[in-house]
Amino acid sequence: MFLRDRMFPRFALYGFLKNLRFFDPFIILIFREAGLSYLQIGTLYAIRDIATNVMEIPTGVFADVFGRRRSMLMAFGSYIISFLIFYAFATYPLYALAMVLFAFGEAFRTGTHKALILEYLKRNGMTHLKVEYYGRTRAASQFGSAINALIAAGLVFWTGHYRTMFLVAIVPYVLDFFNLLTYPPELDGELRREEARSVREQMRATTQDFLRLFTEPRALKSIFNSAGFDALFKSTKDYLQPIVESFALSLPLFLALNDKRRSAIVIGVVYFLIYLSTSYASRSAADFSRRFRSLGRAINLSFLAGAGLLILAGAATWANLTLLAIFTFLGFYILHNLRRPMNVSYISDQIASRVMASGLSVESQVKTILAAVFAPVLGYLADALGVGLALTLLGIAVLGMYALVRVDETAA
Fold it and tell me: Which end is more exposed in the chain, N or C (fewer Cβ atoms within 10 Å of the end residue's Cβ)?
């Protein structure tokens, strides 16, 4: 069974440690405490996404040509520097700089680790287990997020401050840096077998294969379907935080504590339960996809369901049905984690393995472009109309994209 193979524990540990971003469950609250409007928060997200987008293709090609492991190490170094800036300063310009450094890490990382996993499966004759294998490694990531929520809540309760979490998050990222150093060199892919070729020839061959993706309609639709949904999730998921904070402060509990500590307890518990659920969802992605006549059918229906859940969450927030909004967001999180292993498997069937990091980086690039548009629009609408109506309107807009991103349901 693949759970006992030599690399699975290291792949799983990577995801577990990567998701120990203790600031994540409170990031919008951190920005709001610093005096930022929702529009300013949206523009920070857009800065991150645009910077990621600018660097996505060159870093994907870098990973395919010079080494995926080296790319991952550069990513984690950049993350650590960004965490230090977030901890030390609380101004919009320096937050923007930290976002650019964070984006540099995202650009080097996104798509690259998936390519490492897919290369490993290919070399060991396990490609038929793509959904199961990636789903279980992602489950470890989501379990990390569940533990992250409890530790983060404990840190806020103990220190009474949000920004300390940026400093503490450096510890798991240093550990993950050393974990990545243990990955075997052969996972870098074909570049190890073609060392006699010049760098220019390698770059030209990789770039030509990458550009060829844009001439393949099935590959493009699979990329846009995945990227559109993920951009929607990425730009809206943190808006659960003010919803949960409002719910926490409405409860007649822990009244002897200040608002920040009261909110931290409830936010920690809610995010812990969410990520336990999403960890199980990732493990169950293969079983979920088999309930449909094809993987394409599962991907299409889950896209529609996700947009519907966001519309419902927004409407519930607008109507002050806060508990319903929280549970609907829970469904949205679960669905996102059911979809992700299916999308990676589906996209990988459309892309040559030699440019897998570049191909998955295209998907990530499209996601960041869309998220860079969604985030400030959502922030503007949240300032003008309230969080609930903003979420509903964005969900309706993405639902309208479906006809353009519907994938082939006859595909496996």
Answer: N
Tokens linked to 18:
């990567």
Distance of alpha carbon 365 from alpha carbon 54, whole angstroms: 8
Report which of 343, 111, 405, 352 is spatially closest to residue 212, judged by C-alpha positions. 352
Quote the CA–CA distance of 125 and 23 in Å, as a whole number. Answer: 39
Number of other residues whose CB lies within 10 A of the CB of residue 33: 14
Residues in the chain: 412
Measured distance CA(371)–CA(50) in Å, rounded: 9
* Burial of 404 (C-beta count, 10 Å sphere; 0-12/13-18/19+): exposed
Core vs surface per residue 361-392: b (16+ CB within 10 A) or e: bbbbbbbbbbbbebbbbbbbbbbeeebbbbbb
Burial of 1 (0-12, 13-18, 19+ CB in 10 A): exposed
Look at residues 366, 338, 331, 305 and name the one whose alpha carbon lies nearest to residue 111: 366
Above 50 in pLDDT, residue 194?
Answer: no
Helix/strand/coil percent split, the chain, to 5? 85, 0, 15
Nearest to residue 380, comparing CAs of 16, 41, 6? Answer: 41
Distance between alpha carbon 107 and the CA centroid of its chain, in Å?
12
The pLDDT of residue 2 is: 53
Region 335-357: mean pLDDT is 76
* 405, 225 contact by CB (below 8 A): yes
pLDDT value for 192: 42
CATH number of the domain located at residue range(s) 2-405 in this protein:
1.20.1250.20
Query: Is residue 255 classed as helix, strand or coil in its secondary structure?
Result: coil
Q: Give the C-alpha distances (Å, rounded to integers) separating 247 from 267, 276, 403.
A: 9, 21, 36
Of 265 and 216, which is predicted with more confidence?
265
User: Which tops the pLDDT comparison, 141 or 215?
Assistant: 141
Q: Would you state the structure tokens that stand for residue 212, as one six-digit string?
A: 């060829």
Report the distance separating Cα 119 and Cα 186, nearest Å: 9
Q: For residues 97 and 360, which has the higher predicted lDDT (pLDDT)?
A: 97
Q: Find, among 12, 215, 161, the residue nearest to 223 by Cα.
A: 215
Q: Break the chain into its structural domains and give their ranges.
A: 2-405
Q: Give the tens place of pLDDT for each residue, 264-322.
A: 889 999 999 988 888 787 777 778 878 888 888 889 999 999 999 999 999 999 999 99
